[in-house]
Amino acid sequence: MKIALVYGGKSGEHEISLVSAAAIARNIDSKNEIVPIAITKDGRWFLQPESELLRVKKDEKAHFEIKEDSSKEVLVVPAGGTKRTFKVGSDEIGVDVVFPALHGTYGEDGTIQGLFEMVNVPYVGCSTLASAITMDKEKTKVSLAQAGIPVVPGFCMRRSDIADSRRYDELLEKAVAMGFPLFVKPCSAGSSDGASKADDLQHLNGAIIEAFSWDDKILIEKAVNAREVECSVTGNPTTYDGKECDMVKAYGPGEIAPKHEFYDYDAKYNDPDGADLLIPANLPEERLEEIRSLAVKAYTALDLCGLSRVDFFIDKDTDRVYLNEINTLPGFTQISMFPKMCAAFGLDFTSLTNLLLDEAVSRFEATRRLQTSR
């Protein structure tokens, strides 16, 4: 297959995308051809030179660097399909499938997924709607609660609430009533960007200001004295017709034991000793199966497809399980939990990329059989 590997992007997770994309490039089966396309922080798309791809493939520790050559600027062709997906100068480039190695805003929020739908080309990962819902932590919590899946107690605050002093004071009282400590985080950011812990009212006000610098909606949640457990899930519960790539499977769960106060951005990406990753999690088999079942239930309830990492808390005080959040394009770095869990349960990195590419094409073929006009 000819695969467009798209990375970079306009989100706060731009740098992580460069690392994830490099790991993916090194683990895509050599029988495939990779077309590397980088998106700058200001949203411009550039075709990358073959030398950059070769450099990354030769060095396990390398990450992509974006080369901005105006003669290689990429345009996306509406309805171009697999024959004329992109345009570079006067040349049209067709690809069989797109692998977006993009995290966060403009990468896993449904925007680029909608673009690929308009282009009429298969792409790895969740649909436009599923991506948009799971990117919004508030809407995800509402949907999961409706499906009977336990979520962390909390509520949403909107930027407009700040303008109304009475409303703001009411929400502060509501937060304080939950009891400190509390977690405050943007509704639609990833990699713990803008997330912080508040131990008192003063810290709470500061945490709210920080979270609002990342999003117009934020979540204030009860801090759970928790073990952090994650599960990788692949497949397509909506259009499954017997193909191996479409079967919904859960891998894991694994457990994260942070060495920081919580599993923040530095622990995830900057500090190689920021956390211990235990695969499988140190839990009884019946609890491992419970986590896997809940992950598949959530994945199915939200019509997810392709891949997702489903994150849970296990309350150390009550032993209750809460679904914390879902990442539809999780990290693919060498220390990321998603590929590590898949590998530990029998799906090595190259087999994983093959599976995701096959599922993307299978889903594309299934949805294109649907009638869209009379």
How would you sum up this structure, described in words?
The chain is built from twelve helices and 16 strands. The protein is an alpha+beta fold. A five-stranded antiparallel beta sheet has the order 14-13-12-15-16. It is globular. The model has no long low-confidence stretch (mean pLDDT 94).
Furnish the topology, listing elements before pairings:
Layout: E1 2-8, H1 14-27, E2 33-39, E3 45-47, H2 50-58, E4 74-76, E5 86-88, E6 91-93, E7 97-101, H3 111-119, H4 128-135, H5 137-146, E8 154-158, H6 159-163, H7 165-178, E9 182-186, E10 196-198, H8 201-212, E11 217-222, E12 226-235, E13 249-258, H9 265-270, E14 275-278, H10 285-301, E15 306-315, E16 321-327, H11 337-344, H12 349-367
Parallel strand pairs: 1-2, 1-7
Antiparallel strand pairs: 2-3, 4-5, 5-6, 8-11, 9-10, 9-11, 12-13, 12-15, 13-14, 15-16
Helix pairs in contact: 1-2
Strand % is 15-25%
Write down the Rg: 21 Å
Mean pLDDT value: 94
Described by the principal axes of the CA atoms, the overall outline is globular
What is the terminal separation in angstroms? 33 Å
Give the spatial strand order of the biggest sheet. Answer: 14-13-12-15-16
Oligomer: single chain
The residue ranges in which pLDDT falls below 50 over 5 or more consecutive positions are none
Helix content: 25-40%
